[in-house]
Amino acid sequence: MAETSKATVAGVCDIVAGICGLVGGIPLLVLALVGSGVLAALPDAEVRPLAVIPLALFLPLAILCFVSGVVAIAGGVAAFNRRRWGLALAGSIAAVFGFFPVGIAAVVFTILAEPEFRAEACGRARMSNTTTKVLAGCGVGCLLVTLALGGLAWMGYRWARTAVEVVEAAERAEDRLEAEYGLVREFTPPVDGRVAADRVEAFLAVRELMAPQRTALIESVEALVPAEGEGGAVGGLRAARAGISMAPRVLEFAKVRNEALLEVGMGPGEYAWIYWLTYHAWLGHPAGESLMSDIMEMRSESDGSVQMHFQGMDTEQITWQLRRDVLAMLRNLEQELIADPERTELSDLVAAEIAAIDADSSRMPWADGLPEIFVVGLDPYHDRLEATYSPATNPFELLQLD
Q: Are residues 122 and 217 both part of a single domain?
């Protein structure tokens, strides 16, 4: 029987669909591993159990794409050589999972070309030997793909497990802080207004203990800066990779901060008060200052390659949360001052500022300038405080996990 192009067309369709299946399995594998890892690393305890969902949804699909891709390519080779019609048919069916329209065409042409496979039976010995080699190669390929998927899945699990352990350690430390010192907004600032020298030293000790993690987090944020001439999909992928690597560092940063607070004997409310008072109200750094937001805005305006958003990490949310907590602390201070008739000057200042904040929903505490009474004794610490501030880490400094 004369050869036609049916088997050749079937082979081409098989191989094209098989390659599409292999390529399509890669993003599914990435979604499974990265999605699971990111969910496991989120601070919200109610969300972390959902980390298994991306693995359950996308990992089986990725495996299906890889296996069907290998089988389709093997079937395409068999179709080209017009031998092992069963393998060629299996490959064409597998091609349907790789690229549906092309796979359907592969099935049709493989069925139509079946007589050509029978006509090649006279060369069975030679063809059988070649087919055996092809099948052996496909088997080895499937084994390697399976091992690679298993290794990646294990790495993804270990990454997610490590992230969960860091979150749990940070939450345990945070729970201890709240049990010993209360919530952030329950803190009452000193009734004389000034921060005692020993408390400034304790604050700086916490900052110094956090230095290695702060440096690592700064590096992650700065990695979002696009390289010269970079843009489009390449820039988006690079930024996404940097953002993914940032998540565990943010969690480690919060964990070390909480553990440092316990070590030096400082509550989260006092820490937040001194952070706001020194860095924002005194040194003049904006409450919502965020290098990450600036970089993302720059990337979005330049080429639109990436738009990344961390829930609760936008400048407006950071500013609102700090305003809410500081206002609550000022109300606590006002109540203490009411009971102390000798501090009427400070009492009047605090009462007037609270009234101004209540009248203007966008006003930050002492937006017109911090009264001198609050900065008494801070001058000797100016350089040390300035050296431990970073606009890259500012959005994460007062992050609360609960």
A: no
The total of structural domains in the chain comes to 2
Q: How many CB atoms lie within 10 A of CB 107?
A: 18
Torsion angle of alpha carbons 183, 184, 186, 191, nearest 10°?
140
120 and 254 belong to one structural domain: no
Mean pLDDT over all residues of the chain? 81
For 157-203, the three-class secondary structure string (H helix, E strand, C coil) is HHHHHHHHHHHHHHHHHHHHHHHHHCCHHHCCCCCCCCCCHHHHHHH
Question: What Cα–Cα distance (Å) separates residue 307 from each residue in 207, 246, 291, 304, 313?
Answer: 31, 15, 15, 7, 14
Query: What does the CA dihedral 213, 216, 218, 219 come to, rounded to 10 degrees?
Result: 180
- Nearest partner of 274 among 201, 352, 192, 358, judged by Cα: 201
- Whether residue 347 is contained in a domain is answered as yes
Question: Is 175 domain-assigned?
Answer: no
CB 82 within 8 Å of CB 116: yes
How many beta carbons lie within 10 A of that of residue 128, not counting itself? 12
Indicate whether 12 and 51 sit together in one domain.
yes
Q: Please give the Cα distance from 4 to 107 (Å, whole number).
A: 16
DSSP annotation string for 7-19: HHHHHHHHHHHHH
Residue 36: per-residue pLDDT: 72
Q: Are 27 and 99 in contact (CB under 8 A)?
A: no
Which residue range forms the structural domain that includes residue 319?
182-397
Shared domain check, 216 and 144 = no
Residues 132 and 189 in one domain: no
Give the rounded percent of residues in the chain with a pLDDT score beyond 90.
34
My answer on whether 87 and 228 are in the same domain is: no
Residue range 296-353, pLDDT digits in tens: 777 666 655 444 444 445 678 888 999 999 999 999 999 999 888 788 889 999 999 9
DSSP state of 314: S
